[in-house]
């Protein structure tokens, strides 16, 4: 059972292609299914700790994995029963079912067991479960002590995080061969419990990966405040938000943070490390600025638009957040020839790029291509995409992040990474990772100021 940090993410079609490519020489579909069944049996034996296991088998190859795992678990002397929703339909499932020498109970009549192994449907699910199958799955899941899904919980689509109907909550999901988008996209991801990969010897490559601990810029003996990275935070009508971004940039490791506001110093007296200056358009053309953060507390009035235009024409690397995402035009962004990172939440994303039926990964990739910017599409399942197609999917972040000011902290953290010289995609990744770690370190009911402060500690 491999933790999924940093692993490639494959859609159902990409996974099928990878499996086909792996079938060379004496490796057949049956070989892969045997490997999957064996890996599942090993994982389940460990998790079940001697308790009775009920394996639910569907008609396709996901069911096939279930029959093989059941046969292996029984051979190890563990108490196992099998219940099927219908007879096997694929060749793989028929061969696998023949290896199970016990009884097969009809799913709707099956009695619960403490360990439930769901091998009804995996990547081949193409429509909602039949009502009787769904009811049986929910009934058996609610009576179980531990619910384990094979590849994906039956009832979730593979590529977009959608639920095709009412679903029970699982404790563990054993992804086979590769992580799929729904293992991290919401709402599906929140029902999967711990997601772990089982290796089945299929080599997988993708431009999309799960977030992992990134390389973070570190100072050395020759570093000075400017080489560490100078961040200019452009303030507006609500200086609290820009103050938070400035604090976060410092806490994330920036060497110099400049807060540019109209009406003189306004921040809390304790924040001595932030350099405060009155805003003037020419302040943004300062060569040493490694990143401009614009949007937190900017407002949406004429002054705000003017400041945004000045930031765009400065050509300096940009982090565009909050109010600036409501003011900016995609065409103007595409014309800015420096590095740029946009950090929209769902509402801001729709405002900028329009409503779409696409899944979050595809929509974010399209937005990055269209704007020429790295797009950090925030949420419980943040997706980061670069114009060249690279993407990072982030596992569920702390729900306690849903409080005012946490987005400003993220913008500041990303600004620090960009100013330190990371390329924009890596800067976004590093900022998002630091932010998620800081939230974890803060526990519950923290405030955005605590989150910004916690960035120092999680730099490690
Ligand atoms: N292809 C391979 O080489 C391997 C596949 N593996 C397993 O195979 C799975 C994919 O297998 P399949 O493509 O057979 O797909 P599934 O086992 O997910 O099921 C597909 C079958 O169910 C039917 N179906 C789809 N939705 C239904 C619904 N709502 N109600 C009733 N029937 C429905 C389809 O028509 C098809 O017959 C993976 O998730 C994984 O568990 C593993 O065994 C490893 C190797
Ligand atoms: K399943």
Automatic annotation (TrEMBL):
Domain YjeF N-terminal: 10-208
Coiled coil (residue ranges): none
Highest rank taxon of the organism: Bacteria
EC number: 4.2.1.136, 5.1.99.6
Gene Ontology molecular functions: ADP-dependent NAD(P)H-hydrate dehydratase activity; ATP binding; metal ion binding; NAD(P)HX epimerase activity
PROSITE patterns, per database record: YJEF_C_1, YJEF_C_2, YJEF_C_3, YJEF_N
Xref: Pfam families: Carb_kinase (PF01256), YjeF_N (PF03853)
Annotated K(+) binding sites: 62, 118, 154
Cofactor requirements of the protein: K(+); Mg(2+)
Function recorded in the entry: Catalyzes the epimerization of the S- and R-forms of NAD(P)HX, a damaged form of NAD(P)H that is a result of enzymatic or heat-dependent hydration. This is a prerequisite for the S-specific NAD(P)H-hydrate dehydratase to allow the repair of both epimers of NAD(P)HX. Catalyzes the dehydration of the S-form of NAD(P)HX at the expense of ADP, which is converted to AMP. Together with NAD(P)HX epimerase, which catalyzes the epimerization of the S- and R-forms, the enzyme allows the repair of both epimers of NAD(P)HX, a damaged form of NAD(P)H that is a result of enzymatic or heat-dependent hydration.
Subunit structure: Homotetramer.
Family assignment from sequence similarity: Belongs to the NnrE/AIBP family. In the N-terminal section; belongs to the NnrE/AIBP family.
Record protein name field: Bifunctional NAD(P)H-hydrate repair enzyme
Organism: Sphingomonas zeae
Biological classification of the source: Bacteria, Pseudomonadati, Pseudomonadota, Alphaproteobacteria, Sphingomonadales
